[in-house]
Amino acid sequence: MNHQQIRSFSLPTYIITPSQLSQTLSKTPPPTSKISTSPRLIPLCASWFLPNDPQHRTGHSVYIQRRIPGARFFDLDAVKDHDSPYPHMLPTADAFASAMSALGIRRDDTVVVYDSLEQGIFSAPRVGWTLRVFGHGRVHILNNFKLWVEQGYPTESGEPAEAKMEKSEYPAPETFDSGRVVKFAEIKDIARDFGKEGAEGIQILDARSQGRWAGTEAEPRPGLSSGHIPGSISIPVPSLLDPQTKAFLPPKELQKVFESKGIDPTKPIISSCGTGVTAAVIDAALEMADYGHFMDRRLYDGSWT
């Protein structure tokens, strides 16, 4: 591998295939390389399970069980705002930088985030969205680890060697892309004005199950009632995925899903869910389908919780 090859690698789209990841990994320094100063390609496992998971699985346990060689593990339950009473609010810039440093990720690394084998697409888009909010532009989502395994690409297991996890000096982001984030006060105003003459027509899409949205199914967190934000539209995550591969549907099929729900691509869209995790699945699907203007797509951090 020559120096020019290392410098010239790139990935074409935000959401990439196992083949694209494999081919690009072959052109870059190993994710565990401590010698090369060239930008690397880092697989990042973002597996996460709901707190009421019947098998009591955790993201870290499935990471240890099977992962892409050289992958790091991003813990959604740890990298968050610990001063907030809500489960997955964005961390501070300093906390984000500290987490990236602990993972050994450099500012100029390309990061490919992926989900668990079992879920296909679930929490990885939230981590990809988080990196983007904090200005890490070279980030992609793998579509998906299930296909990576089924197509015969390599995996490893067990606790990663400490030498592979050497810390980096990731600088605290100086900018925060607030244009991607919606806060409670704005959602409250949108819900209050829903149906009123002169309302802006902002569309809120909810990634939770139809039952949780309708209020007929319990929320996974004790004491939290189900139901939905007035005017919101139910877009359960499984409706965006292939039922066999659990990968994102092709762009044209995603467009049909959004069209069937009456979503207007010319109007602003806010993605929501239980805590702000799977809302990012909708956000990523909208991008993959090229549905709606990029600047008009935002995510409600904290969401229903």
Q: What's the arrangement of secondary structure elements?
A:
Layout: H1 3-8, E1 15-16, H2 18-25, E2 41-45, H3 59-65, E3 72-73, H4 93-102, E4 110-114, H5 124-133, E5 139-142, H6 145-150, E6 181-182, H7 184-193, E7 203-206, H8 210-214, E8 233-234, H9 251-260, E9 269-272, H10 279-288, E10 297-300
Parallel strand pairs: 1-5, 2-3, 2-4, 4-5, 6-10, 7-8, 7-9, 9-10
Helix pairs in contact: 5-10
Q: Tell me how many strands there are.
A: 10
The string of secondary-structure elements, in order, is: HEHEHEHEHEHEHEHEHEHE
The oligomeric state of the chains shown is single chain
Query: What's the arrangement of strands in the largest beta sheet?
Result: 1-5-4-2-3
User: From the helix content, strand content and strand pairing, which structural class follows?
Assistant: alpha/beta
Secondary structure tally, helices = 10
| N/C terminus separation | 49 Å
How much helix is in the residues? 25-40%
The main pleated sheet reads as:
5 strands, parallel
Mean pLDDT: 87
- How large is the radius of gyration? 19 Å
Shape assignment = globular
Strand content: 5-15%
Q: List unreliable stretches of 5+ residues.
A: 1-7
